[in-house]
Write a structure and sequence with these properties.
With 129 residues, this protein is α+β, with helices and mostly antiparallel strands. It has a single domain, classed as Alpha-Beta Complex (Nucleoside Triphosphate Pyrophosphohydrolase). The chain contains two helices and six strands, in the order αβββαβββ. Strands 1, 2, 3, 4, 5 and 6 form a six-stranded mixed β-sheet that branches.
Length: 129
């Protein structure tokens, strides 16, 4: 099915999500996903937007929950839309707000969901994302 045709059949708006990339010394922090959607892969830190919060508030909250770091400054660099026409459940479809930051408080810590790991920008494990 072509994307244009799929978009015509959609009944629900895209779910809003966030992803944050912490950057320092020409390195980027990724998280190894230990459970849930994306399990076994590296990804940026982020997640769902709750009904009572802004996109930036959600991004900040998710980073705190997943790696125990307090974001000081976020810069939005894009919005990505992901569609999964091969999956009957539209809830997979997402609008992901992408942020970067180089200012935060605290040292990243592993959580039940994420194991943080720094990668040189030229050694990002794209094959495992």
């Amino acid at each position: 099915m072509k994307l244009a045709d799929y978009l015509k059949t959609m009944k629900n708006p895209l779910k809003k999500r966030t992803v944050v990339f912490l950057i320092k010394d020409n390195k980027v922090l990724l998280g190894f996903k230990k459970r849930g959607f994306g399990k076994g892969n590296f990804l940026g830190i982020g997640g769902k937007v709750e009904l009572d919060e802004t996109i930036k508030q959600a991004a900040t909250r998710e980073v705190k929950e997943e790696i125990n770091v307090e974001i000081i400054n976020l810069k939005q660099i894009g919005i990505l839309k992901f569609y999964f026409p091969h999956v009957k459940d539209e809830s997979w479809n997402q609008q992901v707000h992408v942020f970067i930051t180089n200012t935060w408080n605290g040292k990243e810590q592993e959580s039940e969901e994420i194991r943080p790991e720094w990668f040189a920008k030229n050694k990002i494990p794209y094959n495992f994302m």
